[in-house]
Write a structure and sequence with these properties.
2 copies of one chain form a homodimer. The first copy, chain A, has 380 residues and is of the alpha/beta class. Chain A is built from 16 helices and 12 strands. In chain A, helix 1 crosses helix 3, helix 2 crosses helix 3 and helix 11 packs parallel to helix 12. At the A-B interface, helix 3, helix 4, strand 2, helix 8 and strand 3 of A face helix 3, helix 4, strand 2, helix 8 and strand 3 of B. Strand 2 of chain A pairs parallel with strand 11 of chain B, so a sheet runs across the interface. Chain B binds a DNA duplex (16 and 16 nucleotides) through helix 2 and helix 4.
Chain lengths: 380, 380
Amino acid sequence: MSERPRTRRTTVYDVAQEAGVSIASVSFAFRRPEQLSEATRERVLEAARRLGYAPSASARGLARGRTGILGLHAFDLMLERAHEPAARARALRDLHSPDLEGPRIIPWAETDDELLADPRAFPLYVDEVQRGFALECWVMGRPVMLSSGSDSDVSVADTAGRVDGLAIFPSEGSAAVLSRFSSSIPIVLFSAAPAADGHHRVRVDNTQGMREVMTHLLTVHGVRSFAFVGRLDSWDGEERFAQYRESLLQAGIASEDEPVDATVRGPDRMAEQLHALAEAGRMPRALVCSTDQNALAAMDVVRELGFRVPDDVIVTGFDGILAGRLSTPALTTVRQPMEAMGRAAARILAGTAGPLPEDGSSFDAVFAPTLVVRASCGCG
Amino acid sequence: MSERPRTRRTTVYDVAQEAGVSIASVSFAFRRPEQLSEATRERVLEAARRLGYAPSASARGLARGRTGILGLHAFDLMLERAHEPAARARALRDLHSPDLEGPRIIPWAETDDELLADPRAFPLYVDEVQRGFALECWVMGRPVMLSSGSDSDVSVADTAGRVDGLAIFPSEGSAAVLSRFSSSIPIVLFSAAPAADGHHRVRVDNTQGMREVMTHLLTVHGVRSFAFVGRLDSWDGEERFAQYRESLLQAGIASEDEPVDATVRGPDRMAEQLHALAEAGRMPRALVCSTDQNALAAMDVVRELGFRVPDDVIVTGFDGILAGRLSTPALTTVRQPMEAMGRAAARILAGTAGPLPEDGSSFDAVFAPTLVVRASCGCG
DNA sequence: TTGTACGCGTTATCAC
DNA sequence: GTGATAACGCGTACAA
């Protein structure tokens, strides 16, 4: 526990007194070492060391008008999806058992490690983007703040008030709430629909990616019957489905108006619909999935139904998460440069992303993805 | 860039004026909604919404005496190791190319994705622990701050001043610097040697883990000639080597006094030493490695030397990172419950880890690891 | 080179 | 229920 009696935080005043100087000298010793004589600086730092002085970031932020922190925010919805298995993990029991001598050894069974370590749950898209963001911040020597919350005004405002710039995995409709803050801090939206709302954007070229998968399936494998698995509740999903239909149109193949529902959260309708297709004897040759997570789930269902992948049914994904390399068969997919996208966001927020074309405009960085052909389409 | 003219952040004063109330009411509207009449509260929130008001976390932190943030800090050394390939990634070129109309499509080749996406570089030990830490914080609704820096006083103090509690991947000797701050904020050390320095600890039972690998190799595989690959620059390394020797002693096998050096940073001497062993015709039957990263590197070298794994040389690791599942042969290792360890640290810092036995004592949470038998020892 | 004084935006404690 | 006002700890003009 942190309830042991903590002494009041030591402040510049304490250090100043201890070192026999003014508070300005203390401040200088930390922020502008070169402005101080060697002697006083050492005296101050020594006193600070003795007293365990840690400059208050709050006070500094208040005085300077910025915190120095860059934020990465995920709405709860997003997190629950991404980390659903983890969220179900039991809380660890008390870390100390009073009846034991010495430290308690926490048994393996209490850690829920199998659940947490499932590569299907980590690392996912958000995790890889986050890593890129954190890496770039580390390079720049800036701390990163990871936060989450609802898309209510209060929650978002709270996050915005903590950072100098905010990168967001947007939920539906969160762009509106966010635009209130883009006049005071820069905001980057990942994978959001283009719009002139003052936000910067970092996204992937879904059209090119989907075109490549479809071309591969159409020309290399000669597939003529398709279904699209995925939801249309994100811009990525919409773009991918749109190009899917476009590719079919150009190939002269009729396409459904609706994708096979792949609810990741709440009652899952994908399995149900694939069952229906199977019973009707209309299981398509290829299932083109909107995300790798969809694809991995679809593979399970399809196999449960007695089909072999890829012999009977081809399955493809989108994103390029690690779990797609570990599945059997390995997943053919479109890889997004997720770390690079995270890094780009950090640089935009830090103001080191290069010049903007015109004053008042925003970045709209679109990354080219690449087709990764593995076994689930019948190659390799 | 963030250089577009940003308006001054709106403050309580602005909102108060806009809503025609006092600043206290504005504050109450956000922090104690129940203390305000429905009418004023709504009026305030509406005004705040109109103005895009985001309460300053700095000011709040200053007034309240705490920031509400939990920190996870890694020393630069640690980071360079963990993310070395990533650190080498080129900076992205400018995200906008002035001569293009519309958004620029960043070519795949510019993203260095192959380098960044290497599972040998991510996720590693620190990444999984970090994930657990972040997950637990998300559950508690608290933001997380990720930071890094040198182990100088100033750098550490700077980090300490930003958070209410700090979890640390300690470097050699950083415990001393840190102990100055444990009187003002709780500090958790991962994998640090036990000591009564006021810090809390979260670590793994290296002794049990190493005993299990050794027993497996000795009894199941009947191995009689060993070498230990790894450095002794961390407590984990020391404990593992100690138990390695202990197991050999009990089996009546002579052991070297020194492990085969496996420098991860700087000039790598492991390859060189394995070469020497091979030339002398003294390549042991089993290489027991201190970490999975060591083991994966050792497998490469051993194979380069013309040995087959596991037929000629058995290789085992420690940690249980994902990369060990992806290697061929898959790595036999000891898995640490990394996410659980990260979660434990977060709970200790938040004060929700249960009671401490006596006042003034610290948590010392020791987690049991588990043996994961895969192909690199000849099983499976 | 060093010291003084004020402002940063919020919370909390009082009066009213 | 609401309003005035005093901290909170640091950065920084400005004065010395």
